């Protein structure tokens, strides 16, 4: 879903992804490296899961 939705975000802006699958902690940063997008940060959410912030670079 990230690959589709990031096209909707203007270049230079940040998109937040919410996930409850622990694999996302590895998969999302790896996707960012493969697609030359900036992985900004990961945060643990109080309600469970994680939030990932990705800056669109192109």
Summarize the structure.
This protein is an alpha+beta fold. It has helices at about 1-5, 25-35; strands at about 15-20, 40-45, 50-55.
What attributes does this structure have?
58 residues; 3 strands; 2 helices; alpha+beta; 3-stranded antiparallel β-sheet; 28% helix; 33% strand
Describe what you observe in this structure:
It is a single chain. The protein has 58 residues and is of the alpha+beta class. The protein is built from two helices and three strands.
DSSP helix fraction = 25-40%
Instruction: List the total number of helices.
Output: 2
- How would you spell out the order of helices and strands? HEHEE
Helix-and-strand structural type: alpha+beta
Strand content: 25-35%
Number of strands: 3
Distance between the termini: 17 Å
Q: Main β-sheet: number of strands, strand sense, barrel status? A: 3 strands, antiparallel
Q: Radius of gyration, Cα only, in angstroms?
A: 11 Å
Described by the principal axes of the CA atoms, the overall outline is globular
The low-pLDDT segments are: none
Query: For the largest beta sheet, what order do the strands appear in spatially?
Result: 1-3-2
Report mean pLDDT, rounded to a whole number: 97
What is the topological layout?
Elements (H helix, E strand, L loop, with lengths): L1 H4 L8 E6 L4 H12 L2 E7 L5 E6 L3
Antiparallel strand pairs: 1-3, 2-3
């Amino acid at each position: 879903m990230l690959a589709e939705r990031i096209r909707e975000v203007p270049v230079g802006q940040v998109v937040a992804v919410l996930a409850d699958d622990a694999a996302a902690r590895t998969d999302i940063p790896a996707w960012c490296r493969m697609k030359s997008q900036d992985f900004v940060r990961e945060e643990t959410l109080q309600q469970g899961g994680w939030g990932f912030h990705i800056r669109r670079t192109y």
